[in-house]
Amino acid sequence: MFKNKLGKVRSGWIILLALLATTIAQLLLSAPGMIIAIIIESQIHPNLSDEMIDQVLDGSPLSLLAQGLGLIGGIAVLCLLWKFVNKKRISEMGFKRLSPDFIIGLGLGALSIVIIFFILLFTQNIEMANSLGSPDFSTYTILYLLFFILVGFSEELTFRGYIMSTLTDNGNSKLVVYIVSSLIFGIAHLLNPNVAALGIINIFLVGLLFAYMYDKTKSLWMPIGYHITWNYFQGNVFGFPVSGTTPYGLYGIDVSVGNDWLTGGSFGLEGGFLATIMIIIGFIVTKLFTMKR
Length: 293
Fold this sequence. Notes:
Layout: H1 11-44, H2 50-59, H3 61-84, H4 100-122, E1 127-128, H5 139-169, H6 174-187, H7 197-217, H8 221-237, E2 253-254, H9 260-263, H10 273-290
Helix pairs in contact: 1-3, 1-5, 2-3, 3-5, 4-8, 4-10, 5-6, 5-7, 5-8, 6-7, 7-8, 7-10
């Protein structure tokens, strides 16, 4: 049950242990900060409603700090499991020296969202509360940049670095490695607010894209870069929801004037068909960048 024919612990059990351990670490480190944030807000607003509590948990500075600590804790636990359970060096998970692939990933993620934004703007599927020349900078502009850097590292380390490597080391085919890691990535987003069917499909597809980047470059740097700017440009540059979460962007965007199948509605761009197209284009661009390797 626990071991395969070669006498190795089955990859499914190792992955389950990793997911449980990192989740517990994240909760233990982030929960105190979340509770403190609610207590502080309740002192400012004695009649704190459930909606206000959700807003505090979703994006207050203290909440972001707490979530960031949770992500760091999860990364630390995952690295320890990799060393003592998988018995491998961190570099073998895809963390080689900093690569130009990181810059390429950052550029591709940002460009993908910029293209979607301008298509929606020119087709009048969105309206802007402030002009492109009048961005609304705030503390959230920096806080969310730091937060999404941590998210990019955490999720790519987990779903690509750890899960894909564990599946590969246990003799699974490349097809199984791609699909299983991306399915787990999609399932992890099922509880996000305003979740939609196309949104989960696109998250599965972008999981496949990240897996492809990781496989072709033999490094986590390109998917990490893409992941960071894909999220950040959605929510904190252009003001779209990110996988259903509240945006704090440089621009205020109204998606209610457009078609949900294009804009993604309240789930964000990942719930729209334009994201599907950009993800597919991402495979082509990645192949072009890595052809000579």
